[in-house]
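Good morning C.,

I know you're traveling, so I'll keep this short. The sequence:
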Amino acid sequence: MLKNHIIYFPGCANSYDPKTKIENIFRALDIDIKPVSEWNCCGAPPSHYKPDFFNKAVMPLRNLGLCQNGGENFLYSGCSVCVNQINESVKLINSDSMFRKQADYSLKPFNAQLKEFEPLKTGAIHIIDIITDTATEDKLLKIVPSKIKGNSILLYTGCYNDEARIESLKKIFKIMGAEVNIFNDCCGGEKLQNMTPVHSKRIENANIADNFFKLINKKADETNSDYIVTICSMCEKNIDDGMKLSDLDIFAPVIGLVEFIGFILDIEGCGEILNNILSCGVKPENAKLEEYRI
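The tokens, ready to paste straight into the viewer:
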């Protein structure tokens, strides 16, 4: 059953989105959304290179503890990496009583101790669960005419692996009149967001980001897609970084799932560049690369 009140965790990759825009999008779906108070990084990027207990457990669990302080056992996020990191940290402290005690001790100074810590009773949920809920689907499908009718979409799912939810999302867009293709190669994940001081790693990460950006654009070209919709804000950020590094002159615009829903709902400030591109049918000849970052 769809909740009408959720605690939202933006994560580092999605922290640049204006809070009011997110609230307006969910308000249109009759959902009250409240961000985690004083949230911190989920710990995934630093734990990729330094997998200690603080990065793997304390950092993600602090956010979950703050969520529980707000009266909810589950927090929602548009980042697949954040969702996975938080849920894995819950599994970790349930695997050994010593880990549980260490987590309690470490979280105490933050006033973020867990009131509930069993995996099925607390954790993180991807925002796609809300978008594909039948109640949300009914609201979306009542929109006439659909703004995406006749559009060709490359739905980029990355590491998200709930095939039933992906198929539900694909079905919603297809009912709205869009052609949908799926692409799920890994974007490089959290390791590309780690600000390591090692020079060779920075070069390696830049090459991975550039190569992936070209790969996903090749897929968009092969499927004749008008634009790319990514369900994960970490994926969106890595694609965005690849865009800045790439020497490609022509590429597919990219938009995150939550903002795309706002675009469909005509929420102010959502998908404005995408709207301009679709209304014109072509990109301006002298447009700079950054102008198509959504």
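Safe travels,
E.
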